[in-house]
Prior knowledge:
Number of helices: 12
Structural class: alpha/beta
Number of strands: 7
Shape: elongated
Largest sheet: 5 strands, mixed
Helix content: 40-55%
Amino acid sequence: MAEEEEPGWEVDPDDDWGVAVITTVGRQLRLRREAVGMRAAEFGRVVGYGEDMVYKVESGKRIPRPEFLDKADEVLSAGGLLAAMKEDVAKVRYPKRVRDLADMEAKAVEYGVYVGLSIHGLLQTPEHARALFEVSQSAYAVDELENLVAARMARKAIFERSPAPALSFVQEEVTLRRKVGGTMVWRQQLEHLLGVAQLRNATLQVMPTDSGAHPGLSGKIEVLKFGDGTALGRSDGAYNGRPVSDPKQLRILELRYSTIRAQALSPRESVAFIERLLGET
């Protein structure tokens, strides 16, 4: 394997937790390598990477790939210590803001969201998410793009939690009609939405384009409630888009969201609407 095929990604210097994790992993790699009397160049040849890249991983400048840690664990006879670090390392690969969002979602016992411009991340298929990132004009490298897709898909673990949280989604009609990624990806996305709509702990509603004005026209609205009785809300069109926990501000967002749900199609009507869309192609 050529040296330019790097065993990881750069660490966000502003991500204190991520820097600490990768520094610890690098230190363990170096200590294990030195304990078995293996030079960096020799270790690099065995695992298939260049000496310079080995030093970058050991110094905490690069995030090692899972397969790199597996191979290193085997070569250095680490007894599973290095391989066990893959879970934390995988989290570091995701942007800090994505991890923070996933942490909030993972703690919520109720989560309600209205989205007007795109299908919500928790509802996207990998193909749909990939197509959105590809057209974002951000010129992502292949690894970066796949990392972003993986981060978005990892958030969907919320659907597998036990006890299951109560989830509520309201999507604008236009987000369902836009054929992101082409016809096949679009159809798969609609079929996935129908699957979500069948979950006992999730409701999916469609806001028809001809429904008239409603409180969500200024942007996305999110309301999260937690097991300890606290709550968090955010709206693109209120409080400068920042998260709020003040009871008065939360009541306003909850009122706006409940009004949106009342104006949208019922869950049963929404399923029928999506089925009609699928039948039109």
